[in-house]
Amino acid sequence: MEVDILEFVVPVDNSKTLFVWDIQPSLPEDQIYDRLVGLFSSFGPLYLVKLSSNALLHPPGFSALIKFYSAAQALKAQRFTDGHSLFQSSPLKVRLSSKQTPHFLSHSRPLSHTRCLELANYCLGFNGWTSDIITLKELPDKEEVGGSKDEECGGERWGRLRFGCLLQLSFPHHGQMTRGAAVVEDSFTCTGPNVLLQKRCKLQRLVREKALVQAFTTVLLILLENGKVMVELKQTPDQFIPEEIEGVIQVNEFSWSEFPPDEDDYEEWDLTVS
C-alpha cells in the first residue's frame, strides 16, 4: 500500500508545485480563483493558490501557481487536469514545476499558526485533535535587575513583558500526544491606561500560538492509499521543558479575567478544538 507523509512545514519541493496556463478571462478574476481552489483542493490540502494576469505581449488571460503539501497529490492533480477544459471552454495546461529552488529556500520552515490549523482540520477533522495549555505565565525579564520593569525614558514610561507557555497537543483517535513550548517578549511605551492590558493579551495569544506551532512541527500525517490518515510523532511525548518556563503555575490556577482579551479575540482564546 502506497503512503504519503505530510509535515507541518512550508512545502518547497518542485514536486509539490503546479503551474497552470491558458486560463481564459471568461469569468471575473475572483470567480476564476474560487474555481481553481475548488478544483485543486479536491485532490488534497493546498498551501498556496496564486492567480496572475498574462503579460502584456501575451493573449489576454491568466496563469496560476498551485502549491500542495503532498507530492503525490500534486502529481495526481496534474494528471487529471492537464488537457481538460474543466471550468472553461478550452483545455488547461497543467505542469509540475521544473524551476530549481534556491539553496537558501530549500530548508523547510514551520507553517504559520493559521496554516497549522487549516492542515490539521483538513486531514483530521475539527474533532480529530485538541490543544490544552499546561502552563502559561509572565516571566521575569532577563535584563531586569531588581525593582520594576517600568522605566522613564525621555519623559515617557516604557516597559517590557515576557511570557512562557507549555502546551499539549493531543490526537485522541490515534492515541498520540506531544508538547510544544515557546517564550515571547516585547517592549512597549505606556501611552494610556489600557496599553499594559492590551499588550499582555497580545503576548499571551502570541506565545500560545508559537507553542502550538512548535508542537505541530513534531507531527507527521501518514496518508494511506485507502484515504485513512495516521498520526506519528518525530519525538517522544515527554519532550523537553525549557528551563525558561519551568515552575510556572498551572493554567487552572491562572486567572484569565486578570488580562481580558479584546472583543474580537474571544474565539482565538478557545484552545480546544472540538
TrEMBL record:
The keyword NAD does not apply. GO terms for cellular component: cytoplasm; nucleolus. Keywords: Cytoplasm, DNA-binding, Nucleus, RNA-binding. Gene3D superfamilies: 3.30.70.330. Residues 16-99 form the RRM domain. It is found in: Cytoplasm; Nucleus, Nucleolus. One of its GO terms (molecular function) is RNA binding. Homodimer. This is RAD52 motif-containing protein 1. It comes from Channa argus.
